[in-house]
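QUALITY CONTROL LOG
STEP: pairwise intake check
CHECKER ROLE: data steward
CRITERIA: each record must contain a sequence immediately followed by its structure tokens, with no blank fields

ENTRY 1 OF 2
RESULT FIELD BELOW
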Amino acid sequence: LALTQHSAKVNAKDAEGKTALHLAIEGGHPSVITVLLGEPSLDLSIRDKSGTTVFAAAMTRRNNTAAKAILDREPNAAQQFDHKGHNFLHVAVAKNDLESVLFLLSIHVDLSTPTKDDKQLNPLHLATITGSELLVRNLLLAGSDINGLTPHKQNVLHLAALHDHSHLAAVLLENNVNYDALDADLNNALHIAVKNGHVGMCKSLLADCHINATALNLRGQNPLHLLACHQPSTASAIAKIFFEVMPEYPLNSPDVHGNTALLLSYQRGGGQLCRVLVTSGASLGTSNTEGENLFNSAVASRALLAALLDSLSTEPPWAEGDNCMECASKFSLATRRHHCRHCGRLLCGKCSDKLLPILKFALNKPVRVCHICSQVLTLGPSALT
């Protein structure tokens, strides 16, 4: 006190760039802190050589009394950013430091301020990424906007799906998150969860809300198309959840290029997912806009096709079109439409001239089948190897 009364320089720094207030906070001297904060010329923005302000020093030492006193004098002290573009709330959330977060919430810091980096995430985004339910709940109770978006137009449900925090899904849904929100690529949270193979998140989204499970993204793909394209190791488990929760899911819907989920999976050798799709009623005979289907796709081996045909237990849906799916002949009065009763493909008479009973379909009398199905029905799954 005597020094300040005799015009001592309160902003003077030592060799480490620390002011007297830095040292008082580090030493835990409340009376000195009070005197220094009463000095009109005190500069609270000074940083030491490590970049630490006096407010940061108070927060580091969990000296909430000093931190509150600093804020009483300089309300914007808590909004200072570090060299990474993070303010104190960002740092506390990222570190899962609940005590510091609760203190900052008690002094009503701005909850909407994004980080000043390329990600531009607000505190609730960061809390969702950490996966802390306590942080998320406290930020929501303090008034955080649950539908605030990242620059990529993702909300917290997108982020929970991306980081596989299925335990947060219920919290976000009960707080009225927009579960059908679309990001810049028109993906909803289910697209994100499926793409990354997150089983628990897929189950939560499909079972606990009415998310649009058939929404098309910017590439014209629904979540099942994405599952087939990316082939995560959990693909078959996720597909089973789809069909358990939504037995009428349109699994034969084409993407913008006419590809069904089955064709996309077959092109990538996704045998397990293909089997689940076929068992669930996927059409084997559908062609994309380039005329490609399971029977003419340029794959290394046709063993998977044979296995899928052999696994058929019920007659698949019949394909439609204007041309034979085997020889491409255009149908006319002279060239009639037929179907292979085993695979469902649309064929001309020449390409479906084999007659065989299909006992597993309870077709005890001979019916038309294509040449490939004739081989599989006669020789079994080894027919095409």
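ENTRY 2 OF 2
RESULT FIELD BELOW
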Amino acid sequence: MFAVISAPLFGLISTLSLVSSEMTLGQFMVLLAQGLPFDVIHALGNLAFAVWTGAMLHHFLSGLTATEEEVLAVGDVHGLDA
């Protein structure tokens, strides 16, 4: 699901880079609307890629195990507490 949601989010962030102080809300909405076809195709491409590679990646990543040294290096500290 993240693969599909990330495409319009990317489009929005990309469009924000084009905003200027002279731009009106209407002009911004037109700019967003112009990017919709690309965002839809981008989302469909992301979905197709996720479906195509999802099972292979899951199989590959589920077979990975951490060594004792890696477990000791991480310890009980996670996130920003480090």
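INTAKE CHECK: passed for both entries
DESCRIPTIVE NOTE, ENTRY 2: DSSP finds three helices and no strands in the chain.
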